[in-house]
Structure formats: C-alpha cells, structure tokens
C-alpha cells in the first residue's frame, strides 16, 4: 500500500466558530486553536521560499485520522488561495507514504504533476499536489524520514526544493 489517509483538512473563514460547531457535532471539548507554523519548517510554494506565521488551526484526533480546521492568515498561502477561489471546504486529504520518490512516480502515472508546495523539517516533509482532476480533491503527501542533511543543505542554499523528487 502506498499510504494511509492520516488527515482531512478543511479551510474555513472563522476557525473559532467552525471549531465550536465541530465540537458540538462530535460531542467533545473544543480543540485548542494555535497559530502556526512553528520554527523549524522550511516552506516553498512554486519553488520560492515562503513564510506562513499567521494561520490559525484547530485539530481533532479522531479514530484513524486528524480533522484539521485551518483559517488562513492575510498573507498569500495555499490555504488563502483555496479560500478565495472556492470558499470554505475540504482542502485536502493527507497520505502518509513510506517513499516519496516512488509515490510521486505513482502520481505521475495518473497525470498528477510535481508538488506546487512543499514543507521540509529534519524528520520529513509534506507537500501539496494539484490532483482535483484525477482524485477529486487536492492531496497532501507526508513522509517521515531523516531529512536532516537535506534540511541543512536547503538552509545553506546548497540544495533546491524538490530535488530529491526529480
């Protein structure tokens, strides 16, 4: 198996209200809302460095997956672009895969291109691919692996984002 769905992400206008509504529907306390992203993640959108520090997120750990509610900040971001184009809705399903390179080849076989957004951290990476035509929604692809050397090379400017996928 190539992956396991670990998360469903919903982009929202007002995370406080939607969080309250989900808590009522699920019959659980409201999830904590945090402003993301923490230090230690390098983000690239369309190959250019990007910084997102003003998104608010609430997460519910449910049986088998995480429900993530994200309210984008005012700055340009994949989440802001989605909200402006589509309004509130499911942004992505997240798959955890063992081998990003092999999985990217599988995506290519069904006509999905390279990620347009990628985030790296020393213990792995996540990326977004435009797969609405092929899968009916956007896909987030996560992997856990030792990315320590790649992370350092990216910070030093001696590596380029997504080189490991080419």
Characterization of the model:
- The chain is α+β, with helices and mostly antiparallel strands and 166 residues long.
- It has a single domain (3-165), classed as 2,3-Dihydroxybiphenyl 1,2-Dioxygenase, domain 1 (Roll).
- 27% of the residues lie in helices and 37% in strands.
- It is built from 5 helices and 10 strands.
- The protein has helices spanning 15-26, 78-86, 100-109, 132-135, 148-156, and strands at residues 3-11, 33-36, 42-45, 48-50, 55-62, 65-71, 89-97, 117-121, 124-129, 138-144.
- It has a 10-stranded mixed sheet.
- Strand 3 and strand 4 (48-50) form a beta hairpin.
- It is globular.
- The model has no long low-confidence stretch (mean pLDDT 91).
Order of helices and strands: EHEEEEEHEHEEHEH
| Lateral arrangement of strands in the main beta sheet | 2-5-6-1-7-10-9-8-3-4
C-alpha geometry: globular
Helix content: 25-40%
Mean pLDDT, to the nearest integer, reads 91
Properties at a glance:
single chain, 166 residues, alpha+beta, 2,3-Dihydroxybiphenyl 1,2-Dioxygenase, domain 1, 10-stranded mixed β-sheet, 5 helices, 37% strand, globular
